[in-house]
Amino acid sequence: SGQVIEESHPQPIRRVVSPATARMLKEFLVGVVERGTGKPARIPGVGIAGKTGTSRKYTDGQYESGSYTASFVGFLPADNPQVVCLVMMDNPRAGSYTGGAVSAPVFRSIAEKVLGTSDLFAPAAIARAETTAGKEPMPAMTEAAEAENLPAIVRGNALTALVPDVVGWSV
């Protein structure tokens, strides 16, 4: 319907980390998905950066036996992030309890569905976005939002993100 859901005007306050530190951290997070515990989140041809997490629950002053939270948070494309997603499972019971085994595959499934919602995420568009990282948003974003009838986030006069409705999707 082209309805604007949220309009904001970010006000930079300060740089939290240097550009070099940000690049290094991004490479570490890409490594988690390419070579580490986040491998189940990989999607061939799409640069994904992310981090797995597994924590034992702490209740009434002690750690609970067999009670965990499993998580995976990631963003894509890694070189020009357009989507960020956090998957957190409370007490997973399907055999494993780690973020890499339980939450990363759910992230992958969600990311695959989001990637399929717009031409913006076609391989050519991703490659184009990765080579124009840090530049003005691509004009195709406005056309993609209209063509897919997706709500959008507008910052100033620029459409900066497509927001697909994922309510009701199963993974």
Note the main sheet.
Answer: 3 strands, mixed
Q: Compute the number of strand runs.
A: 6
Please compute the radius of gyration using only Cα atoms.
18 Å
**Residue ranges: pLDDT <50 for 5 or more in a row?**
134-161
Rounded mean pLDDT score: 79
Structure write-up:
The structure is a single chain. The protein has 171 residues and is α+β, with helices and mostly antiparallel strands. Helices cover 30% and strands 27% of the residues. It contains four helices and six strands, in the order E-H-E-E-E-H-H-H-E-E. The chain has a three-stranded mixed β-sheet, with helices on one face. The protein has a three-stranded antiparallel β-sheet with strand order 2-3-4. The protein starts with a strand and ends in a 9-residue tail after the last strand. About 16% of the residues have low confidence.
Brief overview:
The protein has 171 residues and is of the alpha+beta class.
Which properties best describe this structure?
single chain; 171 residues; 4 helices
Please write out the topology.
Blueprint: E1 4-7, H1 19-35, E2 49-59, E3 62-76, E4 83-90, H2 99-115, H3 123-131, H4 140-148, E5 152-155, E6 158-162
Parallel strand pairs: 1-5
Antiparallel strand pairs: 2-3, 3-4, 5-6
